[in-house]
Amino acid sequence: MSVGQVVFWLAAVGAVLGAIGMLSSPNPVHSALFLVFSLFCVAVVYLLMGAEFLAIIQVIVYAGAIMVLFLFVIMLLNLKRDEFGQDRLFRQYPVSYLATAVLGAVLTTAGLAVGLRFSEEPTLLVPADRLANLLFTKYLLPFELASLILLIAMIGVVVMVKRPRGG
User: Residue 10: pLDDT above 80?
Assistant: First the structure.
């Protein structure tokens, strides 16, 4: 195994473990931090593919800006454990664990099948400079609309939380 393959497997396992940590953590702030870790691991995979632009965008936009917004909203809501109410779906836990194990086995098998074909020089479907050119020319409007939708969602949450109680 080459160094690139070892780094790939470490980043891939890190991304999966970060996602599992995000889903299993009862604390929303810890979940957000697990998501940041997972996003950094995905950025490492982008770097291995030679897509430096995507790696930088991954870190700046997703791990940076959007996660800061998530943390602000989580802290702004200030949810307490008793506000969630009683868990009514506790009987479905065994079925969900089984479904998760089956899905994990399928994804692991698929990952191993793809990993066995992993070559020393991965080929990019779209070169990084062409991707940057497409993102800021042809797909500029959807890119800006996505940022606008995120901003509107954040403003909506702030307005709903700051609404006066009672009356």
Answer: yes
